Amino acid sequence: MTVGWTRAVFVGCVTFVVLGLAYTVALGVLHR
Amino acid sequence: MSRSAGLRDGLRNNSLSLVFLTLCVLTIIGQAVSGTAQYNNDALTEGLQQVSVWQYLVSSDFAVDVAENWQSEYLQFLLFIVLTVWLVQRGSPESKELDKTGRESDEEQRVAEYSTDTSPAWARVRGWRLTLYSRSLGLAMALIFLGSWFAQSVAGRAAYNEQQLRQLQEPLPWLGYVGSADFWNRTTQNWQSEFLAVGSMAILAVYLRERGSPESKPVGAAHDETGAQG
């Protein structure tokens, strides 16, 4: 049960960072 | 286990990550609000149009401010993780023991034939998977560092060029911006603070204690005891 939570937090954190990076790059490219 | 007990356990057992992620989201909201106010103050003096928080959130100014801070944090952890393999600090809980520098033996690292039933699958076999998995934490930090530094360069260039065009100055190509004073000023002002904080942490924890924290030695530990955690 708690291992499932830990995995979900890990995946959530990685997703947040990857989406954050993609978002900042996209803004930079769009405002070129 | 009841549903609410499961929820409580899940939150408690992951509270360190969850609290920091929540703080990150809350401070991004704070950054968006204060960033909008600052942008609008500048816009007022330059006779430009005011923007809403939502318009600021999709601006290159917001993007570069986020990315420049991300890259320096991940660089800090990358260097801390990798350099502590070889560098030591006598008396620091952040350091390994003085005679254990280097990648250590397979037995100490519990890999391949020294692995146990609970070892991760990629730690049990020799070959590229073990090599990759043995470096995965540093690699992840390095990838995020390089990704956010790249994001800083792209978004920073867009923000810089918007200002250049407003002042009827020539915009810069990407490579030109990467060599510019603006890019390196943003970069180095973040790096210096990270390096100071890590260095301070390593040396302050030799003589100072935080009872109960795994980042500190036990309160009664000797000053020259290295690598102990309380």
Chain pair sharing the greatest interface? A-B, 21 and 34 residues
The largest sheet of chain A is: none
Strand content of chain A: under 5%
Mean pLDDT of chain A: 92
Quick structural summary:
Chain A is mostly helical and 32 residues long. Helices cover 91% and strands 0% of the residues of chain A. In chain A, 19% of the residues are buried.
Notes on the structure:
- The complex is a heterodimer of chains A (32) and B (230).
- With 32 residues, chain A is mainly alpha-helical.
- Chain A starts with a helix and ends with a helix.
- Chain B has 230 residues and is mainly alpha-helical.
- In chain B, 67% of the residues lie in helices and 0% in strands.
- Chain B is built from ten helices and no strands.
- The longest helix of chain B has 32 residues.
- The radius of gyration of chain B is 23 Å and the shape is elongated.
- The model of chain B has no long low-confidence stretch (mean pLDDT 96).
Keywords:
heterodimer; A: 32 residues; mainly alpha; 91% helix; rod-shaped; B: 230 residues; 10 helices; elongated
List the helices and strands and how they pair.
The complex is a heterodimer of chains A (32) and B (230).
Chain A (H helix, E strand, L loop, with lengths): L1 H29 L2
Chain B lengths: L2 H11 L1 H32 L6 H5 L2 H27 L19 H4 L11 H4 L3 H7 L1 H31 L7 H5 L2 H27 L23
Helix pairs in contact in B: 4-8, 4-10
